[in-house]
Amino acid sequence: MNRPETDNRDLFAIADLAKEFGISTRAIRFYEAKGLLSPERVGATRIFRRRDRARLILILRGKRLGFSLRDISDYLSLYDANRSQQVHLLIDKVDERLASLERQRDDLETTINELREIRRLVDERPAKAG
């Protein structure tokens, strides 16, 4: 399997990462402002390393899965720490997110059934002559 060219690079410009992940440079600067990314600076230019790219992958995955920036930050704070702590935090957050999504699914199913019942009642009721 061929690895993408970016996996072999050590340094990235903000525009490179934005293009690769289909996000804006503003989003990357936002993650930096929140302390989730820490690029080096050469003058006013941000220099991202492989570690920053890996963290960005985790940030975007976490957002896609519905985790808050706080949850993502907590997870990333353990990025270089004890692997066991990282796994336990991840399991806790995943279980919380699954429970939340399952509650939302149950609420949606209830709402859909109620709307179908209303529709059925309306369809069965004869229309009044105007």
UniProtKB/TrEMBL annotation:
<dbReference type="InterPro" id="IPR000551">
    <property type="entry name" value="MerR-type_HTH_dom"/>
</dbReference>
<dbReference type="GO" id="GO:0003677">
    <property type="term" value="F:DNA binding"/>
</dbReference>
<keyword id="KW-0805">Transcription regulation</keyword>
<feature type="domain" description="HTH merR-type">
    <location>
        <begin position="11"/>
        <end position="78"/>
    </location>
</feature>
<keyword id="KW-0238">DNA-binding</keyword>
<feature type="coiled-coil region">
    <location>
        <begin position="91"/>
        <end position="125"/>
    </location>
</feature>
<dbReference type="InterPro" id="IPR047057">
    <property type="entry name" value="MerR_fam"/>
</dbReference>
<dbReference type="InterPro" id="IPR015358">
    <property type="entry name" value="Tscrpt_reg_MerR_DNA-bd"/>
</dbReference>
<dbReference type="Pfam" id="PF09278">
    <property type="entry name" value="MerR-DNA-bind"/>
</dbReference>
<keyword id="KW-0804">Transcription</keyword>
<protein>
    <submittedName>
        <fullName>MerR family DNA-binding protein</fullName>
    </submittedName>
</protein>
<dbReference type="InterPro" id="IPR009061">
    <property type="entry name" value="DNA-bd_dom_put_sf"/>
</dbReference>
<dbReference type="GO" id="GO:0003700">
    <property type="term" value="F:DNA-binding transcription factor activity"/>
</dbReference>
<dbReference type="Pfam" id="PF00376">
    <property type="entry name" value="MerR"/>
</dbReference>
<keyword id="KW-0175">Coiled coil</keyword>
